């Protein structure tokens, strides 16, 4: 315990608790490449020589169109998925997908027609 003790003029003291560091908890679980491919995601090789020289592998995108202007994007670096809303080429919003089941639920929500 690294609390600070401040002594008062009247002989008493005040304990000031140590500030706890703020940590961001990443709640996104990794989703494997084959799992998103099996769900219908498509791979597009980008042929970026600079990226390949820096990282040792070619840059590629793995995406699935869910609805007009809404795309699920799998990151090859983090193995996580975000659902992105585009207006033309501009990103309007991003939604992090927490795990594989959550991804399946989003795909069903955006792609199934009302009965």
Q: Beta fraction of the residues?
A: 25-35%
Largest beta sheet, briefly?
A: 5 strands, antiparallel
- Uncertain segments are none
Radius of gyration over C-alpha positions, nearest whole angstrom = 23 Å
What's the domain count? 1
Question: Could you report the average pLDDT, rounded to the nearest whole number?
Answer: 85
* Helical coverage, percent range: 10-25%
Structure description:
- This protein is α+β, with helices and mostly antiparallel strands.
- It has one domain.
- It has three helices and seven strands.
- It has a five-stranded antiparallel β-sheet.
- It is elongated.
- The termini are far apart.
Write a brief caption for the model.
With 115 residues, the chain is of the alpha+beta class. 22% of the residues lie in helices and 34% in strands.
Task: Give a quick set of tags describing it.
115 residues; alpha+beta; 5-stranded antiparallel sheet; two-stranded antiparallel sheet; 3 helices
Helices and strands, with pairings:
Layout: E1 4-7, E2 13-16, H1 33-38, E3 42-45, H2 49-55, E4 60-67, E5 70-74, E6 81-87, E7 90-96, H3 100-111
Antiparallel strand pairs: 1-2, 3-4, 4-5, 5-6, 6-7
